[in-house]
Automatic annotation (TrEMBL):
Family the entry assigns: Belongs to the class-I pyridoxal-phosphate-dependent aminotransferase family.
Domain Aminotransferase class I/classII large, first and last residues per copy: 28-393
CDD domains for this protein: AAT_like
Keyword Metal-binding: no
EC primary class: transferase
InterPro entries listed in its UniProt record: Aminotransferase_I/II_large (IPR004839), Asp_trans (IPR000796), NHTrfase_class1_PyrdxlP-BS (IPR004838), PyrdxlP-dep_Trfase (IPR015424), PyrdxlP-dep_Trfase_major (IPR015421), PyrdxlP-dep_Trfase_small (IPR015422)
Protein name (database record): Aminotransferase
One Pfam short name: Aminotran_1_2
Organism annotation: Shewanella japonica
Matches recorded under PROSITE patterns: AA_TRANSFER_CLASS_1
Phylogenetic lineage: Bacteria, Pseudomonadati, Pseudomonadota, Gammaproteobacteria, Alteromonadales
Keyword field: Aminotransferase, Pyridoxal phosphate, Transferase
Length: 397
């Protein structure tokens, strides 16, 4: 017998919360744990443009034959345009190669496996705090994790000095994980001039950026949110991007993302990509087709693309409205503490500053589920549930 001595694995800090939420019998329970967009009715509907693309695909589909290892070609070129912009030098010089991959998580894992097997870079710097799954993904692949400062709890703001000071200790060839936009969990992003500084630091210290880009379009807009990536990419010779369409196309369960490698020249990019393909072949062989076909159908049709941009803007604006309403309702519930910083944060999350104990009380006493770090998914708030949430928060403060 080989299985009997295996210990129980701990529940995932975010998805485990959803399991606990499902078992909770209380009628007015609220799940603000996992980052899933909900509309005003509390639903996560399929985007209209996705439904339209699916109708086109259903009609046009002739085969379920395998895709190539790198997935749908049209999809991969569309991804590059979204990341770098239409007429970017990197694309023109063929310095970027992209493979469709299963979600942002699958893309990050492919990146990690590729790095571990093909480079001498074994250390990855991540922000403190970062998305809970980062350590899990990269450590499982065999990378050593180090942290750089990012957030100042007292001011609820960026600690850029700490970030730069910590990264001074990085060695040439070290990898640095950067959130493209809508930093998870803090919702605080670098300014353009801070991106310039980080890009220059990568050049000076020979660090290799790995962008995790899971929320393009949820911050200020599709092009605006790519600014940081584009600023850094214009400076450094090499980088990786793992992007996801789970959120901005609402394609959570289709598992659709991509891994893009940028190298100093076409030949190196092509050779690196051949190793990425080898990694994919040994992992899941080739990606599932549906998500890639949906995204490429929408992005290659001018009308559908414009409609998608409107749908994305609606999601972005609704979250922004919920941020303002959340801050106002806390005030009207008598909360004296200043929570106005929440309206300055970007993306789906609000890093509330609530303690682990307060988070536990919210769950146990009020059925309000948020992540242990105090991260609240504002994307799950509605006009209906905000009063419930704010009353509960007022009680635990
Ligand atoms: N990176 C970050 C920062 C995320 O927040 C997420 C989703 N929660 C992902 C990657 C992974 O996205 P996906 O669901 O597409 O795997």
């Amino acid at each position: 017998m080989i299985f009997s001595q295996i210990p129980q694995a701990p529940a995932d800090p975010i998805l485990g919360l959803t399991d606990a939420f499902k078992k909770d019998p209380r009628a007015d329970k609220v799940n603000l744990g996992v980052g899933i967009y909900k509309d005003e009715a509390g639903q996560t509907p399929v985007l209209k443009t996705v439904k339209k693309a699916e109708a086109i695909l259903l009609d046009a589909e002739k085969t379920k034959n395998y895709l190539g290892i790198e997935g749908v070609e049209l999809y991969n070129t569309a991804v590059q345009t979204l990341l770098f912009g239409a007429k970017n030098d990197i694309i023109n010089a063929k310095r970027a190669y992209t493979a469709q991959a299963p979600g942002g998580t699958g893309s990050l894992r492919v990146a990690a496996e590729f790095l571990v097997r093909n480079t001498d870079s074994k250390t990855l710097w991540v922000s403190n705090p970062t998305w809970a799954n980062h350590q899990n993904i990269f450590q499982t692949a065999g990378l050593t994790i180090k942290e750089y400062g990012y957030y100042k709890a007292e001011t609820h703001d960026m600690d850029f000095d700490a970030m730069i000071t910590d990264l001074q200790a990085a060695q040439p060839g070290d990898l640095i994980l950067l959130h493209g936009c809508c930093h998870n969990p803090t919702g605080i992003d670098l300014s353009s001039s801070q991106w310039e500084t980080v890009g220059q630091l990568c050049v000076d210290k020979e660090l290799v950026p790995l962008f995790d880009f899971a929320y393009q379009g949820f911050g200020a807009g599709i092009e605006e949110d790519a600014q940081g990536l584009r600023i850094v990419a214009a400076k450094v010779p090499e980088l990786l991007v793992a992007n996801s369409f789970s959120k901005n196309f609402g394609l959570y369960n289709e598992r659709i993302g991509a891994i893009t490698v940028v190298a100093a020249n076409e030949e190196t990019a092509q050779k690196s990509f051949s190793q990425i393909k080898k990694t994919i072949r040994a992992t899941y062989s080739n990606p599932p087709a549906h998500g890639g076909l949906i995204v490429s159908t929408i992005l290659s049709d001018e009308t559908l693309r414009q409609e998608w941009e409107v749908e994305l803007a609606e999601m972005r604006q609704r979250i922004a409205e919920m941020r303002v309403l959340f801050v106002e309702t806390l005030k009207s519930e008598g909360v004296k503490q200043d929570f106005s910083f929440i309206s300055r944060q970007n993306g789906m999350f609000s890093f509330s500053g609530l303690s682990k104990e307060q988070v536990n009380r919210l769950k146990d006493e009020f059925g309000v589920y948020i992540v242990g770090s105090g991260r609240i998914s504002v994307a799950g708030m509605t006009k209906q549930n905000i009063p419930v949430i704010c009353k509960a928060i007022a009680q635990v403060l």
